[in-house]
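Quick one - first record:
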Amino acid sequence: MDTRLSCADNAHPGELDEEFDNFPTNRNPDVVRMQYDRLRSIAGRIQTVVGDLATQGKWFQALLSWRDPRATALFLIFCLAVAVVLYVTPFQVLALIYVLRHPKFRHKLPGVPLNFFRRLPAKTDSML
């Protein structure tokens, strides 16, 4: 077994102790409570990230499924055209355009696309 490949040499001693503990534990209840609290905090962070991803997915789905099919088709064609332009244009040119933008567009307010994306309606109004 290669300990470097499995990163076993980087493991915290408390994690190894927790891993090799037998089922009816004989550890101090405070240690077990600390381990479960750490696990609960990690699970809470994961749940927050998954909730944020679900919100982003809901907004993206709202962009792609407008009530008017023509608007959805026009938006998809626009996205395809922007993707082709971004693929063809070198990154240095895009960075130069961003750096040399007009002072009117340098304010600290959120960008128009981001503001539009955040204000999209939720699907709760069309639920039964």
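second record:
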Amino acid sequence: MWDTGPKFLMKEENEWPQTPIDFTNITDDPEVKSVNAVIVNKVDDSVNKLINSVSNWIKLVKIVARLLRWRYKTKKKGVEMNQFLSVAEWRNAETAVFKYIQNQVLDTELKDIQNNQPIKKGSSLIKIDPIIVEGLMRVGGRLKRSEMSDEAKHPIILPKNHHVTVLILRYHITGHSGVEHTLAVIRQRFWPIGSRVMLKSIVSKCVKCRKHRAPVLQQKMSDLPADRVKSMLPPFSNVGVDCFGPFYVRQGRSSVKRYGIIFTCINIRAIHLEMSSSLDTASFINALRRFIARRGTPLDIRSDNGGNFVKGNKELKSAMKAWNQEHIHQHLLQKQIIWKFTPP
């Protein structure tokens, strides 16, 4: 067949087979590799369904505690019990949940410790030296002589990525204070395997944690005002004014307060300093007059809402209203200056 090819090639074309040969059903060819696949249907028990159906750790413990109470009452018929759960029932429910998930996930390591055999090298528990205390697998370590509590010295081992472990991690994110603080609180009683990665994933999905860790928003500054970018104006055309002090100076044999008034050119940031004997209006107006006599009359003066500035502004406006407009107009008319007065 290697030399001549298939026999149907020697025949007429109309006698060739119409459908292609199915090469998937070849069973007697030794060069064809056979693969055997096995499908296993995992049967989920009722306890696992119950655990996975609850989304809150406290609620899960309450349900398990009620179930354990019901089982106890069925065995001990006629026993009267309190309506509320006791602390012992709560702890028994927690212990039952921990024992169940350890037997379900960490059964290999649990059997090795019970049989006094070393844990396999590929296990995730080999670095924490696990021990068994009252049926629960806990962290070993070298803190037996420490003054810490037994739960802090030997926390309960929780399996990685288990639903109960996730519930416990969520329960301890109460203050939304970050991964490190939450992890320190959890490890006082529990030791979740791979807890840092799991906790980071949970914190990243928490809305309040994301708000606390969000960067501070930066507001975009608006455009500069026109009086700060007009470079063709002479200095001190637009001025900002403020007071500073007090300074104690000697006057005769006494010590008196003196204040400084700073005038800043908004365009070129040049400054002019004047002294004020006090913070009253008259002292400010006198300092303003000295500034105008030295630097010229400004077009615009900006200040904060200081009392001396506000009152000085009012007095200047009232003085302008009291001007003799006719006399000023006649004086400026001789110099061919147009006078237009707008009352403030």
